[in-house]
Design brief:
Belongs to the CD200R family. The protein has no helices and 34 strands. It has 420 residues and is mainly beta.
């Protein structure tokens, strides 16, 4: 009679834990025989059982024992530091002559604790990673007020990465916590939400689309080098939640300047240092740009939110560029008036009217150079010398040219006039 005695069992271990399995065999022999006992690990289909660690196999002879004796034998299987490859179903087996005995199944599950990280990005999404765990971790959220999205990635080594993301846009919570539940551990991680990940909505607009309601758009013009001031909504700042400027520049770049009242924090994302609050944003969320550059052209939206709701104001900022003005006269009697790199294009006129031509050169940055040529050969009066004074953004540029009773008038949005 050959019998194996031990209970069926299941073990859940962490990588690195020790494992000891004990197999007790009873053998009552009627004649001398060899007794062989071993542990094996079942294949996944359980059609075969591979012996585990040959050094643990014992070959015992009972030929010198009393044929009626009952022999008890214990065989230990020891694994000092289990790894994920040790997971599986184990079984103790014995055979003696024509007898065979098998023990109960012992299931061993070696768990791998996941690496847990909690991050947030500028789009207002918080992401909890439970990486390379076995089995897959489960993730839940505390302080979250949005809908979470969960994905699981299965790796070739049997581990699973669980990723759960939650949008915290418009959340009033200062913190959010993710709870990771796993057989090897339970862990929580908490992250402080900066203003840019909560109340502040990212720019996801197409380059040609203006934020907010197009009907509310206000076109504002400013001259390069000067200060541009854009006021925000007249909404009450009592119980203010946030003030946000969302900007899409002409070249498609996005900028975000945002203030969150409960944290008294301002977040600047991709904004030039020239763009800033004109005053304390909780008192006056007006935006100022100083000095204005041509690259600042684009769409500007201010959004104010308090406990009663939110309002917004849209602007299109147009930047004017004064042209550089030159006037020359060659020996053939041709006068050339040039207004270089202005925006919009300058307008050049001549007095008295005569034979002249005008050309426009459009540059990639949106400025235009205007070139006007005036032929003075046929004028009846000659010999006048004039001192030319150009008034350009407050500075006086003087030059002397001898011409034949020639008047050149340069008009640029009614600001610049040159007379010869």
């Amino acid at each position: 009679m050959l019998e194996i005695i031990y209970p069926s069992a299941s073990f859940i271990l962490r990588e690195g834990d020790p494992l000891t399995l004990n197999c007790t065999v009873w053998h009552q022999q009627k004649q001398p025989s060899d007794l062989k006992v071993y542990w094996c690990k079942l294949a996944e289909n359980q059609n075969s059982c591979a012996r585990v660690r040959k050094e643990l196999e014992r070959l015992l002879s009972t030929e010198h024992l009393n044929p009626q004796a009952r022999v008890s034998l214990s065989l230990l299987l020891q694994i000092h530091n289990v790894s994920r490859s040790d997971s599986g179903v184990y079984q103790c087996r014995a055979n003696a002559s024509d007898q065979t005995a098998v023990g109960h199944y012992i299931r061993v599950n070696v768990t791998v604790p996941p690496a847990v990280t909690l991050t947030h990005d500028s789009s207002g999404v918080v992401v909890c990673h439970a990486s390379a765990g076995k089995p897959a971790a489960e993730i839940s959220w505390a302080q979250g007020n949005g809908r979470s999205i969960e994905n699981k990635t299965h790796h070739t080594n049997g581990t699973v990465t669980t990723l759960s993301s939650m949008s915290m846009i418009n959340s009033t919570n200062a913190h959010v916590t993710c709870l990771v539940i796993h057989p090897a551990m339970n862990q929580t991680q908490t992250i402080e939400l900066s203003p840019k990940t909560t109340d502040f909505i990212p720019m996801t607009l197409e380059p040609h689309v203006l934020p907010g309601n197009l009907a509310d758009n206000v076109v504002v013009s400013s001259v390069t080098g000067y200060r541009a001031v854009l006021s925000c909504s007249n909404m009450s700042l009592v119980n203010l939640i946030s003030a946000v400027w969302k900007i899409r520049l002409r070249d498609g770049a996005c900028c975000l300047l945002a203030y969150r009242a409960d944290l008294n924090k301002t977040v600047r994302t991709n904004c030039s240092e020239r763009m800033d609050w004109a005053a304390r944003p909780d008192h006056d969320p007006t935006l100022q740009i100083h000095p204005v550059r041509l690259s600042d052209e684009g769409y500007y939206m201010c959004e104010i939110a308090n406990i009663d709701g939110s309002l917004h104001q849209n602007y299109t900022l147009s930047v004017l560029v004064p042209p550089e003005v030159t006037l020359t006269l060659d020996i053939s009697g041709t006068s050339l008036c040039k207004a270089s790199a202005g925006k919009p294009a300058a307008q050049i006129s001549w007095l008295p009217a005569g034979d002249h031509s005008t050309e426009h050169e459009i540059h990639t940055n949106g400025t235009v150079t205007v070139l006007s040529t005036y032929r003075v050969n046929n004028l009846k009066h000659e010999g006048f010398s004039l001192l030319l004074h150009y008034l350009l953004t407050g500075s006086t540029i003087s030059c002397v040219i001898i011409v034949t009773i020639l008047y050149c008038t340069l008009q640029h949005r009614g600001t610049y006039t040159t007379v010869v």
